[in-house]
Sequence to fold (489 residues):
Amino acid sequence: MSRSTAPIGFEFSVRDYSLTGANTRQAIENGLSAAEWYHSEIPRKKLKLLMKRRDAPAIRDTVIWIALHFVFAAGGLYFWGSWLCVPFWFAYGVVYGSACDSRWHECGHGTAFRTRWMNDVVYHIASFQIMRNPVNWRWSHARHHTDTIIVGRDPEIAWIHPINLILKALAFVGIVETWISLKTLMRNAMANLSQEEKDYIPESQWHKAIFWARVHIAIYAAVLLISFVLLVSGAAWKSLIPILLIGGPRVYGCWHFVMTGLLQHGGLAENVLDHRLNSRTLYMNPISQWIYWNMNYHIEHHMFPMVPYYSLPALHEMIKDDLPPPNTSIWDGYKEMMGSVMKQRVDPNYAIRKTLPPTARPYRDHLHKAVPERNAGAVSSDRGGM
Amino acid sequence: MPWIDVCAIDDVEEEDVIRWDHEDRTYAIFRSVDDEFYCTDGLCTHEQVHLSDGLVMDYEIECPKHNGLFDYRSGKALRAPVCEDLQTYETRVGNGRVLVFIE
Fold:
């Protein structure tokens, strides 16, 4: 692997991650927004087969997912009062507070199920579990795919410079994010959308964002009320059960989705137009891969977001010769990412630039330049290299 | 002459779409599962992505970038992030060719 200390992507003199600041204007002026992105070549016939939707895989996985909620919650309740309940609540936390992220993501794309209402139902359940306004986040994720890790345009950049490692560590226990999410839902429920939300959500959708925020807040208020009533009724520690079942797993069960989510783009380049430079594909154990619904094939997902999660392994096999070598495990991914992150804390322009296999087309560096130079460099960058 | 010859019917596979550029505009030509042909504007109304790279399912076209969904018969926007309908154009088949009415 080669690593770069020179900026790989277009370099901004200052970094402003807001969606209404100086970098937003610069990104638009430099043609980094809504730009042409590199993608591996796949014959349309093969791509059509990969994009094909089926209900069966997602129905199977959703039935298992829901069943696991009941099984683990039942175990946690049955063994309440003994240490034996702890592993059940731990597992319940992961299926509620982590697996919901990948379900939210895939159903938001509309790719999990062939039947549209099934995508919508699971999307709303998962949005509630992860405490995301289902309207706001649908639009923010669309922007994430248009302008992936483009500073000033992408509202979902997880690694913001300067990197605060304490906040990143706290993300694994979800307290800060849960507090922020609840504040956002409460603000939306009071019919207040921020300037940034208004930037990426069309005005015609604002009323829906307010409606769903009110639904979420009403359910959380009901849970807190039940818990309070149990407490004053003398239920003591048992009064925590409603919170452990609903809402709480966003705190105590989120660690797995944070662990996998940080790997998606961490330590990689900003302001580039080639997903091979700003996204990470890695192999992982089958349990994590099931929880994550195959989003470990993240370069593939960004290049071809219409391919459903159950076809991503096949897509990976088809284009892997055009991609950087995948990390071999979550641990391997973290070693690579954290090595880069520590350097980025000193030099935010540092980024990993993996060596491509000889079968791959070279990184399209001309795409990262501002528009006039980008067009002029289109031919010269095809010469080869890494 | 408002009826424009676009392509041979075999140029479009069943339940698929192709891109057709005419003068300064780009269009999408669809062939449905029941062998009917339809024409819409070629770019998604959300972020101007070519729909010809998208996925046709029954009577719907999914945008390749953000998975927005349209009914290509009516142009109606069906799923966010698309909100604005597509313009559609009258289409007919004659002598093995697809023709589109462009005013």
Chain A has one domain: 1-386. Chain A has a mean pLDDT of 90. The first strand of chain A starts at residue 2 and ends at 4. The beta strands of chain A are 2-4, 351-353.
